[in-house]
């Protein structure tokens, strides 16, 4: 069993398809198929259930994927350790919610890039569940996660506190009018969505229609057009409120403030680029957070 075979197996398991895995890896499909069959022959077990809609891991495949993620993660970390010995360089993969990426991170990432231009910094956006999974699978070096945080395999630096507001079109003056409107949210796994749905349930509001959107811009556009309401950080909607096309309504005190932390795997090798980023984060964390202020 070679590391290259494990990478092919990991790609197929992640994509659920030989075709998609081949495209991702830049291989021909026959090569991917042959390597999966050879791996199954070497291990003397079937790794995938094959059907018309794709491929699904067997119990043995699921077990192998856990080890493959760890092994390939260690190999990637070893490469990072070698390249981190001199001038900071190499990949640094960070995750964030769209709201945090839009308002909180631009100044931080710009400052980091100015200081360490040889680091290949990449930013992936997603919801809390997606980002957590990315860290656990060694796909992300770390991520900014919002909401209560407690995970045995992860460590965190508290970064800043967001004030949450219910946001509507400018013409909605009273929140009592809001229950008749849909709520505009990101897909499941988003902490802000969970907080809003929990609050609506606790206050016995009739369950409104839920509309899922893929981008922050789409949610803000829908809200400003009167399509519905949403729950977002005040920093995200401040410009729209100031310019008169959004209105911010105070969220109840007990649920108004949400902490955001930078999170990483406890057992991961901390490459030099990641350590330098964490040093910047520690110095920038609120209350001394001029770097993050809108």
UniProtKB/TrEMBL annotation:
Protein name: LysR family transcriptional regulator
InterPro entries: LysR_HTH_N (IPR000847), LysR_subst-bd (IPR005119), WH-like_DNA-bd_sf (IPR036388), WH_DNA-bd_sf (IPR036390)
Segments forming a coiled coil: none
Family: Belongs to the LysR transcriptional regulatory family.
Taxonomic superkingdom: Bacteria
Keywords assigned by UniProt, alphabetized: DNA-binding, Transcription, Transcription regulation
Gene3D superfamilies the UniProt entry points to: Periplasmic binding protein-like II (3.40.190.10), Winged helix-like DNA-binding domain superfamily/Winged helix DNA-binding domain (1.10.10.10)
Gene Ontology MF, one: transcription cis-regulatory region binding
Domain HTH lysR-type, first and last residues per copy: 1-58
CDD domains per the UniProt record, alphabetical: PBP2_YofA_SoxR_like
